[in-house]
Every structure is written in C-alpha cells, then in structure tokens.
Amino acid sequence: MDMRSNGGHGRRRAAVEQAFRTLPERYLGAEAHFDATYQIRLGDLGQTWEVRCTPGHARVHPNATARRPDVVIGTDAQTWLDLREGRLSGIEAFSSRRLYITGELDLAVAFEGLFELPGHRPPLLRMRMIDVGDTKVSTLTMGEGPDVLLIHGLGGAKSSFLDAAAALSADFRVHALDLPGFGSSGKPLRAPYDAAWFADVVLRTMDALGVRRAHIAGNSMGGRVALEVGLCAPERVGGLVLLCPGVAFIKRGLHPIVRLLRPELGLLPHRFTRGMVEGQLWSLFADPDAIDPEIADVIVTEFQRIYASAGGRLAFLAAARNLYLEAPFGRNGFYPRLSEIQAPALFVWGTDDTLIPATFARHVRRWLPDADQIVLEGCGHVPQVERADQTAGIMRRFFRRADALSATADAAPGRAA
Q1: Angular region, 145: left φ>0, alpha ψ -120 to 50, beta rest
Q2: Dihedral, CA atoms, 195, 201, 207, 208, nearest 10 degrees?
Q3: How much is the average pLDDT of 75-86?
Q4: Under CATH, which architecture does the 127-410 domain have?
C-alpha cells in the first residue's frame, strides 16, 4: 500500500516504525567478524534510525547514538517501505536517485541482503565474499533467469555495473564481481594480475556460485578477462559483450620503459590526490554532464579508499603493465588467439574513447569476422555508466539472441541429449 496516497503522516510513521522494529527478527546473519553501523535517515520524517549488524545479531535504535556510522543511507519514508516490502531493490532506488549514501559503497549495498523480506521471502539481492583458494572475491547477485556475469575495468569495481545489474535483473540472474586486487575483493601480493590468472579466478568464482554457464559482459580490462574466459573454457560461456575491451595495443612506443616499471613500486606508500582522480574519471566520458556528480563522488571516494592499501596499488600497477605489454601478434599473440573465440561475441566501442579508440574495431574484424560490432556516437570508455539504459538494452537483446541460438543448436537433429 502506497502511504503517499493512503493515510497521512501518522500512518506512514507507524508503518516505518514497524518496519524497523521487525528488522532484528528478519536478520539473516553475517560472516565472522562483520561489524557495521548504519544510519538510516528519512528526510520527510525528520528522523534517523541506527542499525548495528554483527555476525549473529542486528540491533535497532530509534535515534542516532554516539557511535560513528560506517554508512549513512538517506531516503524518504515511502522508498524505505518499498525497500522493506521488496517492491524495489536498493540498487534500483540508488539508480533512480531515490536514495543516497555516504560511506563504503559495498557495505551500503550489502545492507539489503542482510534481511529477509516479509513472508520469509529472500532478499532481492545478496552480497557474498567467495573463497576461491588463493584469495577472496566479493560478489553481488540479484534477479532470476539465465546467468549473466559482469566484470569491471582497471581501477574500477562492480559498482560501475550497478545500473546494468538493476536493469538486467528483470530477465537474468546477474552476478557482478570485484576482480582480486580491486573493490572489496582480496589483494594478494604474490598474484600475477594477468588475464590468465583473472580468468581462472572468474571460473572458480562461477563454481562457488553454482554457475555452470553464463553470459559475460566486461568493460575495458574486464572485457579482456571475459575474452580469456571464453578462450580457456568455451563450454562455460553463452555470449560475450565486450564494452571498450582492453585489446592488445598495436603500437607500443613506451614498451621498453613500461617493462622497467615494476609493480612492486606500489608497495611504497603514495597516493593520488582527489583532484587527480577526479580529472582521470571525467576524462573517461565524452559528456561529463551525463554523469550524476553524486555518483562520481562515490566512485572517486571508492578508488582513493582502495588505492590507499599496498595490495590495491600493486594490483593496479601490475594489471596496467600486463595490459600494455601484451603482444598483439606472433606466437600466443592476442589477435591470433582472438580468432579462436567460439561464443557469440559483441564488441561495443565509443567514438570518444581516448583509451581504447573505436579504430581497434578493424583489427577485431580481421581476426574475428563473425563478431558483431557497434560504435556508440559521442560515448567514451565506460558505456555502461555514460549510456546506462542504452547499454543495458544492447546487452539484454544480445544475450537473449545468444540464448535463442543455443536453444536452436541444442534442438538440432543428431545433437546429444
């Protein structure tokens, strides 16, 4: 029932108070050592609630205490009730700007998945930390249907795919992950941070999530990892959408210098100023005005937090070095290997991408002529952010088509059951 059209201020407040009172009994628990304090600020009611979550308990206070919150979530009473009833997810509310957050983004996103919905229904999304042996991988899962895996780019995190995850979850079971070294995932100091290792981690993560086969979409470095998964385990991949993927550079004039730059330098304390990070972020987009400044602020804060750790710095530098130094041709060169891709593939480029220019399309066409290619006019390097709705639509249509092609192949005469 929509409290904006039924009942006044008093009824809305009573419903909100009831929703907060029942949170402890709906609590699903958290992993060992989890301890997070949330402040929920409902602006139209002028009140703040505090929720502290530990491994076995959730405690609710009707006012803010002296405890410093890890996350502040601000919204209105009706949106909060919609969230608690499961009428929309927190990511959908965030994407539609009905909700704002301050603090660690992953903790904010995880809040919803800590509580079951009324009627003992599962939450609309869950955050999990997956142990894959040599590291841990942070994942977000939402929606029902065929599995889709979303992989972010260099210096990014699964947060760059939140809008896409929300849009695709109406038709697919979507998994967005943080590659090791990035976001909330582990940051092992001895990892190679190359495409082969990342692909192996992705496959182990799929195993842990119970995903036998998935469509995969990757942006920038994530596109390179997605291609490697397609090469290493073609039977595990439905369709591939490569968003401005990190293909091998043809001209590498800085090759000798980059080879000398050791990623271990990242272990030495250093930082990028907020201004430097903001400048680099805005350069990724053709139209900075298309990006909500609040979202940009969250992205910059997250990058600075992650890069503040020695493991985060090493991972960033090692992964960047490996991308730049990958051989385009010759034995085990990128482009000859690209021709071995079996899954249906769609490459999406931006005309205003200054990192991976759309001119790379001709190299892909030469080595993988059956792949589909789209060039987005006036788009930069991160189409899933800059052109969120359009990119989500492109992915949805392509994955549906890949499913249809697979179903047709499975039904062909002589195909083993």
Answers
A1: left
A2: -150
A3: 96
A4: 3-Layer(aba) Sandwich (3.40)
Beta bridge partners of 173: 147
Tokens of 284: 């990724």
CA distance 267 to 257: 19
Tokens of 117: 């919905």
Write b or e for each residue in 330-369: b if 16 or more Cβ atoms lie within 10 A of its Cβ, otherwise e.
eeeebbeebeebebbbbbbbbebbeebebebbebbeebbe
Closest CA to 382 of 258, 318, 274, 296: 296
Alpha carbon distance 141, 54 (integer Å): 21
Which superfamily, per CATH, for 9-120?
Answer: SCP2 sterol-binding domain (3.30.1050.10)
Q: Please, what is the Cα angle at 147 between 145 and 148, to 5 degrees? A: 120
**Letter string b/e over residues 144-155, b meaning 16 or more CB atoms within 10 A of that residue's CB:** eebbbbbbbbbb
Q: Which residues pair with 38 in a beta bridge?
A: 51, 71
DSSP bridge partners of 115:
27
pLDDT at 10: 81
- Nearest by Cα to 47 from 70, 13, 78, 15: 13
Q: What is the pLDDT of residues 21-34, one digit of tens each?
A: 999 999 999 988 99
d(CA 99, CA 108): 11
Q: What is the pLDDT of residues 265-284, one digit of tens each?
A: 545 566 778 888 888 889 99
DSSP 340: T
End-to-end CA distance of the chain: 48
Helix (H, G, I), strand (E, B), or coil: what is residue 27?
strand
State whether the Cα torsion 272-273-278-280 is positive or negative.
negative
- What pTM, to 2 d.p., does this model score? 0.92
Spatial CA neighbour of 175 closest among 141, 203, 151, 208: 141
Q: Residue ranges per domain, the chain? A: 9-120, 127-410
Task: Give me 129's structure tokens.
Answer: 């930390």
pLDDT (tens digit per residue) in 142-195 = 999 999 999 999 999 999 999 999 999 999 999 999 999 999 999 999 999 999
